[in-house]
Amino acid sequence: MKYEEIVHRCFRCGYCKLTSDYTDFNCPAYRKFRFETYSPGGRMWLIRAWLNNEIKNSERFQDILFSCATCANCVEHCVFVFSEDLVNIFIAAREEMVNKGIIPPAVRDYLKNIRINGNPYKEPQDERGKWADGTSVETYKDQDYLFYVGCVGSYDERAKKIARVVGNLLLEAGISIGILGDKEKCDGNEVRALGEAGLFQFLAEENIAYFKELGVKRIITLDPHAFNAFKNDYPGLGGEFEVYHYTQILAPLIKSKKIPLAEYKAKITFHDPCYLGRHNGEYDAPRKILGAIPGVEMVEMEQNRENAFCCGGGGGNFFTDILGGGEDSPNRIRVQGALDTGAQIIAVACPQCAKMMEDAIKSEELDDRLEVLDVAEIVSRALS
Amino acid sequence: MTDITQALAEIVGEGYVSDQPEEAYFYARDPGLMPAHEPDYVVVPKTAEEIQKVVRLANRDKIPIVPMGAGMALTGLVIPLKGGIVIDMKRMTGILAINEKARLVIVEGGISQGLLKAYLEKNYPKLRHSIPDSPATATIAANVMIHGQGRLSQQYGFNSDMVAGLEVVLPSGEICKIGSCSISPDWFSKGAPMPDLSGLFLGWFGATGIITKVALKLYPKKKMRDVEIFITDMEEIVPDIVHELTYTEMVEDITVFAQPLPMIFRDNHHITIFFTGDTDTELEFKRKMVWDALDRFIKSKDGGFMGVPPVMKPTLLDSPQRSVTRFADVKKGGGFEYSGPIILVEKYPECSRKIRELAEKYDLGYSGMARIIGRGHCMMYGFAFTFNRADPDMMERTRKALHEVSEYALEAGGVFWKPTVNEQKMALDKMDPNTRNLMGMIKKNIDPNGIMNPGNWEVN
Amino acid sequence: MDKENCLGWLKGGKMYALNFDENLCTTCPTGDCLVKCQYMDVEKDTAVEEMVKISRGEDSFVFKDCVTCYGCEEYCKRGNHPFYLITERREEKGILTSPRAITKQWINIGEPQGKYRLGKVKEKVLSFGFMPEFLKWVRGRLFEDVMPSFIFGQEFFCNVVYIHFANTSIIKERLPMVVDNFKKLGVKEVVFIHDECYGAFAHLAPAYGIKVPFKSIHYFEYLYKRLQELKDEIRPLNIKVAYQRPCSSRLSSDKHHFVADIMELIGVDLVEREYQGENALCCGGIFSMCFGYDLANDVQKRNIDDMAANGAEYCVFNCPACQSTLGEKVAKRGIKPVHMIDICRMAIGEK
User: Fold this and answer.
1) pLDDT of residue C14
2) Residues A306 and A375 in one domain
3) Per-residue model confidence as pLDDT tens digits over B80-94
4) What is the ipTM, given to two decimal places?
């Protein structure tokens, strides 16, 4: 297994599951299950035990490995020099399990759907660009930027709305964008996170070849997950592009008043997506956008930025739901954190987070007190 | 699912009980060197009442019970030597009451050091507790249970001396209050002016009961904190240096360390001196008092204050010091263990020589780490060795070295801190027979079925 | 030279001896080396007398009172090396300046570990010595014509600091090896970013007959030339600064004028103050380690009071060690600490 030489070095001290000031446990799976085995240290020790044939690849072991939301809280807070590789180690262990074909059914189904349908929703490929119907967003030809939407933005009803708002905003700001429509393929970020390295490589190479064929130089992504794959994983496979999350494009446009904003009175708290924040260090762009809207009062949740608590949708859990629901599910804990701020709106910058948080609001019966809006949707409401 | 599993699930909820091999594997070990032994069940309760029910069930069926905090003692105290039920306490993280004026807090038995620290910093910035340098996940209850030491131990003694009351679940299942809280709504004393019953539980490693609530004394927290390091190449003068420092009454914490790596630390003994103040004037006054106290050593060239560069200060002022935990990876192997006898400060020189001798004999990486307790009344001297978990030979050499430390510590007049089972046996063997019998009587009467952390403090 | 009078040290068959001419002292008209000393009160005749005694290996109060500020190396304009001599004699007599533990610690820190770092080394190279700060600070256009040609690590550490600790043996043991390390890299010109390293190769090495097979360039001179090349990009900073002169600059006093030259070039008002030039006060870092609280505290207080009294808004540091010692203290008085590199970068809009 990759990183096998590191696995034994975990001291299981537990810093990995805390925030930097120790306010609370911040590992989504540990918060949910509360057995040490579901913490990063637990995974490290169990992976080693598995490699040494001291435990078997059981259903529970699979749950333990695949409930990791790859949120990188452990990477942020582990005190050892190998901290950077913690999530990579968990993914490497998943790869071993995938290679041996012993994985949770939900993971198997997800990967199968991507392989067969090109998306996890089993939807037809020619429906992929339908989200843009009724907008002025055109197919990519030679525009400045490829606007890459991803599987969730293309097929999920809630996410499609966000995709439309982002697309319209970019166009209204004069940004030259084009989409791939029914030619768009899965970016593979979750495929990689779920341990299907071969399928990820296939998807990435197909995407890279197609982007190059079209002459794509710059990409704006709707989804931080795609942003992560394009920015961090594609270069190693020959895909060197300028990659931006859409908030990174909007922030300077708003600052320079190219998107003029009117007053929009609201108390807002921003939920950092892990693949924008901890994985890629972008904490400011969404906050700059929201902070620039007249009338907006920004309030931070106790756990924010590097210490943000994951919604629980990362690492494929959005699709596999191995973390599961219940009172201690990460998304429900997170909306309670948002409620504590007194905010009316939870701002998100990721379609997966948007869905996870909306589900949690329903479960917590907070529909009348909290609303989940994407940063772009809030900007759209504030357009003058 | 077995009947017991089912019964436990009915108490704590199905999601919080496991009889699976994964939990059995993990909870069978701690990060130290003691042999693994698997539990039959692991439960993660939420309330004292749930624990009460679990204990009653266990007592009925004579199933061993081991309460566990973060499991960071490193000496195997939460390894279920005879199987049974491990109770992971870390869902019980409540801060139940705080009295700012009296400087007291009541917490649940699973709250971590880190969480209490964060809570106080945010809500009561003038209050602090004596935080140890174990990882922030270490729990308050487990720390007082093992007579831990922390940042305020030089001033106020063992962290267990700072307990102001306990709630414990007895082996029979009764929930029992210890201290002023047994007759008053207020938790301010663990014993005085009445018989101090906290001694029936503190230091027993759960062999007499499970702590579900702790009242803890808090102390003033000044706005500023600083650190100086006095170094000397003469281990024999370290006790004199400590004596001078404790006399000043100006110092918060004093620790001493000597280790061969990195090179900056080779050849010397480092007396790390922490002090606090609300103003620059107060801080500088204390600094001068500290420097003046040691001036004679500077004049004789036997010691001096090393310059502590600003970049080093965050590491030193960190509470808990994460750098202590990093010692585990010195050999790129994720392991360290130490034997930390409580011993007179005057024994520092021989302890220091002993660790060097053992490190050389067994070819091990080491750090000698001492924390002063009280105004120099005693110290914890940690004979710490780092090892590579993937190197069985190195692990065995470390075990041997630690065994020699144990023998040495007893001979030198030390008393084991958080002793391994073997050290407990050595201590009991050396103990005054009447004291040993008293311990046996206590254990037998409180836990007649011997279900509580069996193997620990067993008087045969 | 017999063993008793030998000022040198034998290593690998090669002798390194201090070039010291006692006659220059006996004929000295001023005794400046000790008369100008800011930590001793000495008349001219006594100064001459004591230096001659020291040269002859006799006892002197200087061994007790010298605080190792290096100042006399600058005050002596006759080409002698009073401070190196004092250091040699102290070592011979076993007179310690610093606690043994401090000396051991510093010697250990400087021991080569094989952990040096090399950039893409060319004939012209920047030497960071063993100052890790420079790995972060040296960047931007000021250095673009040499970077990434740099070296860093104990293997390139000049070791001069040990003269504070009355230990020249270690310098004579290590410095030739450091020279060799440079030699192996085949460098022709070395820009020393740490002032003390420059002093080592341009001043101390010749004093001991250690041959240096490359051209040594002080980074002040380098910065001044680069700033002239980037003149069009300089935006005058219009700030008032005090300069904290390090002990090491006493070994390169001919380069001291670059401080004023650079400040003028970048539109900075270098405040006139009591403790400047030859009268500069030590940062106190070494004083505290060697002699305790009172001397260091007194010197630091006078120094910072002087900066504040003369309206300094910034304190410009040459040596990172001075900055580490004094940075926080000047900041508490409302004076911003800044390294020479950073203030130059500020002037060209990089900070």
Assistant:
1) 56
2) yes
3) 999 999 999 999 999
4) 0.97
pTM: 0.95
Domains of chain C with bracketed CATH: 9-93 (no CATH), 101-219 (3.40.50), 230-347 (3.40.50.1860)
Let me know if C102 is exposed, middle or buried by CB neighbors in 10 A (0-12, 13-18, 19+): buried
Is the CB of C144 inside 8 Å of chain B's CB atoms?
no
The CA distance from B287 to B349, in Å, is: 26
Euclidean distance between CA atoms A46 and A52, whole angstroms: 10
Q: Within an 8 Å CB–CB cutoff, is residue B313 touching chain C?
A: no
Residue of B nearest to C94 (CA): B301
Chains with 3 or more CB pairs under 8 A to chain A: B
pLDDT at C1: 34
The Cα of B413 is separated from the nearest Cα of chain C by a number of Å equal to: 30
Q: What is the helix (H) or strand (E) element at residue A109, kind and residue range?
A: helix A105-117
Best probe of the B interface among A3, A6, A12, by most B CBs < 10 A, is A12
**Token pair in block for residue B151:** 């940042």
Q: Do the Cβ atoms of C96 and B232 come within 8 Å?
A: no
pLDDT in tens, A272-309: 999 999 999 999 999 999 999 999 999 999 999 999 99
The CATH number given to whatever domain includes residue A266 is 3.40.50
Measure the CA–CA gap between B376 and B385, rounded to whole angstroms: 25
Tell me which residue in B18, B113, B115 faces A24 most closely, judged by beta carbons: B115
Contact in structure between C334 and C240 (CB atoms under 8 Å)? no
Q: How confident is the model at residue C9 (pLDDT cuts 50, 70, 90)?
A: very low
Q: Check CB contact of A42 with chain B, cutoff 8 Å.
A: yes
- The predicted structure's pLDDT at residue B460: 79
> Do A185 and A289 sit in the same domain of this protein?
no
Q: Kindly state whether residues A186 and A139 are assigned to the same domain.
A: yes
Radius of gyration of chain B (CA): 22
Residue C121 pLDDT = 97
- Per the structure, the complete domain to which residue A277 belongs is given by 260-382
Which regions in chain B score pLDDT beneath 50? none
Q: How far is C215 from chain B (nearest CA, A)?
A: 32
Kindly identify which residue of chain B lies nearest to residue A65, measuring between CA atoms: B22
